[in-house]
Amino acid sequence: MSSEKTLRELADENDVTIGAGVPARSFRQYPDDPTLAQTLKREFNAITTANALKMGPLRPERKVYDFDDADAIVNFGVENDMTVRGHTLLWHKQTPEWFLAWDYTDDQLEAFVRDHIHTVAGRYHDKVDVWDVVNEAVADDGSMRETMWYEAMGEAYLDKAFEWANDVAPNADLYYNDYEIASDNDKADAVYDLLQRLLDRGVPIDGVGIQMHSLPSYQHSREGPEAVGANIRRFKDLGLDVQVTEMDVAYGPDEEFDDRLEHQAQYYRDVLEACLDNGCDTLITWGVHDAGTWLQNRYDVTSDPLLFDENFNPKPAYDAIRDLLESRS
Ligand code: GLA
User: Fold this and answer.
1) pLDDT tens digits for 108-134?
2) For atom 6 of ligand 1, which residue has the closest CA?
């Protein structure tokens, strides 16, 4: 028989971190949307800024930062004694329009990135516990992604980004974060090699985030617990911490089956178990409830990938991970 304990209580008892990404626009309604806030603080012991700290939303103009949404999420996490994950200091997507139009030199870009990281990571130095410093530096074929950062600084941009974050947030854990690295595949191998090179060069990196968007188009993020566990283990063996940072579980239109929510529940449970059994202690879902998922209004996937339904009722996936933690308490 299951207890009345919440997911958060069971996570705390197990020294496990269970978190959720919060989209800026839904959180801005707080406290007019008390359900989101109540669910978050009752059920999760970690919180992630899903969009608010990306360069695009954060910097409406080159010299103007708008920290309102990010402050709201970060402060909510601090006030409610949650682990706060900052996402993300450097990503090639969701950059501002003015940035894309700016004709910078390599040196100007380097100075710009340094200032950005110093400003953002510095502002939250005593509030953000974990930073996704660099997001998605490796392309799908395993080559280094030819981003603006890579073109200006070469692979050393990662070294510099982690150093700059470490300058101003020495107590935060600094992560590299990417998708399709949940199992042994060419991209995961390339990320493994990149992390090895960073460590060999003495870069201050603490961990790797496995995004885990489990969708039909991301085949390597749908593999079984043995493959996922073995891959977590090899990253751990590099000496890095590993977290599952952006999990959601969706299906394609051809995959509609009657017990889809049970299948989803089992997959969440399998991934959490693979994580815990292999030395990873954190699972973050990319949103709280189905009405807030980034997968709304898409034709190619189901739009109910999270632990709570559109009315914040717990789903079988919630019960599945709660039961797993209870069985380990
Ligand atoms: C990537 C990014 C996230 C988010 C998701 C879904 O995984 O890291 O910030 O944008 O895509 O949109």
Assistant:
1) 999 999 999 999 999 999 999 999 999
2) 294
